[in-house]
Structures are given as structure tokens and as C-alpha cells.
Amino acid sequence: MGRLVVIEGLDGAGKRTLAARLTAELSAAGGTVCSTAFPRYDDDVHAELARDALYGRMGDLASSVHAMAVLFALDRRAAIPALRTDLATHDVVLVDRYVASNAAYNAARLGQDAHGEVVEWVRALEVERFDLPVPDHQLLLAPPREVAAERARARELTEPGRERDAYESDDALQARTDAVYRQLAGAGWLSPWTVVDGSGPDPAPALARLLLDGPG
Ligand code: TMP
Questions:
Q1: Any idea where the Thymidylate kinase-like domain is (predicted)?
Q2: Which residue(s) pair with 9 in the sheet?
Q3: How far apart are CA 29 and CA 180, in angstroms?
């Protein structure tokens, strides 16, 4: 049975680049790897609705924290058979965003007092009720804010006219989400976590060794 490894982080943290580097390192070390990403905008109607809501094309839908969380959760629920097959046939299944995205963003959207309740609600819905495979390890990619801001500026140059969705364009929400992510990582929510500060040398070689040999 393969290991389910999740990459989490804010919008623009560099998750896709890390996934590609990790895939290369894990493969070079002889591991079989496959990767996937949530939301699956092109493959799932719930993800498609969530995207429309994030771009203001679904009336007031995005204003409901719980409605948005349910859409993202249903996307993952529909992916369970494929995830189980991937886990049975690979050493590592690498996932860009998973259930912790739902916990972190939706807790951050509500006041501090509701954080614990929302995080537990997401866990009960996705892990208990939907029986989603639980991650074996979660990586929080959390570069310093200047590095993330520089990356966002570069992205604006390479992808001019790219629209930012309702969460991406909300700096206060991003800062609160960062704080919830760090709490989840610190508490070892659902699995062991490794926090990766993507500003230093390439973290992929050491992470690949940890994921193939290390505990958790
Ligand atoms: P994306 O930027 O990775 O396409 O995801 C869109 C937004 O949706 C992003 O700001 C994170 C958020 N999100 C959730 O709130 N819950 C989830 O379960 C997922 C996968 C994403």
C-alpha cells in the first residue's frame, strides 16, 4: 500500500513546483509516484461550481462557508475510488491540496472562536462520513511573505490579465489561513506534518528521503 502525501500552502506558495521536484526525486530514488491536485475543476461538477462561485458567477454561493466546504469535499469524495487504486499501485501518491485546505481556508473565513469547530466539522464530514483516505504525511509549504509576494508579482508578468479568485485577492484571508495552517501542522492534524520554508536550497532531495524511508 502506497503512502498518501499531501502538499498544502497558500495560493502562490509554489506547491506545483514542489510537486514536480518531489516527483522527480522520488522517481530517481526508485519509487513509483503519481500525483493529483484538488480542486479537480475539469473532472468534477462540484469543483466546477466552487470555481464559478469563487469568481462571483454563482450569485451569493461563495458567501456560505459551509456550502463552499461541502462542494470541495464532494469533489474529493468522488475521487476516492481513483485514490484507492493509485495507492494500491504506487509507493507514493502526491496530492496538491486536500482536506486540510478545507479546514484552513474555511476556519480562516470565520472568527477565531469558530476555528476549532470548523476544523472538526471538516474532519467529521470528510474523514468519518465520506471515509476519505487519511494522509500519511502532510507538507506545509510556507515561504516567507516577501518570497510569496515576489512570486505573485512574477506570475502577474508571466500571466498578464489572469484574474485572481475571491480568496486569492483577499490578503487578510491569506494571512489568517497561514496562521490556521501553522496551527494544524503544529498539532499534527490527521498526520505528521513537515513545514517547508521554500526560500532556501531545493528541499526536494531531503523530503524524498524522508517520505520513502522516514517515520510518519
Ligand atoms: P486553487 O487555488 O488551488 O485552485 O483552489 C481554489 C481556492 O479554494 C483556494 O483559495 C483554496 C480553496 N480551497 C478550499 O477552500 N477548500 C478545498 O478543499 C480546496 C481544495 C481549496
A1: 7-175
A2: 141
A3: 33
Tell me which CATH homologous superfamily contains domain 3-213. Answer: P-loop containing nucleotide triphosphate hydrolases (3.40.50.300)
Assembly ipTM: 0.99
How far is the centre of ligand 1, averaged over its atoms, from the C-alpha of 157 (Å)? 23
Count Cβ neighbours within 10 Å for each residue of 119-146 and write b for 16 or more, e otherwise: bebbbebbeeeeebbebbbbbbbbbeee
Q: How many CA atoms lie within 13 A of 195 on its CB side?
A: 16
pLDDT tens readout for residues 131-174: 999 999 999 999 887 777 777 778 878 888 888 899 988 989 99
- Please give the distance, rounded to the nearest whole angstrom, from the Cα atom of residue 186 to the centre of ligand 1: 21
Q: What are the residues facing 141 on neighbouring strands? A: 9, 196
- The minimum-distance atom of ligand 1 relative to the CA of 47 is 20
Nearest protein CA to atom 10 of ligand 1, as residue = 167
Q: Give me ligand 1 centre to Cα 100, in Å.
A: 10
User: What are the boundaries of each domain within the chain?
Assistant: 3-213
How long is the chain? 216
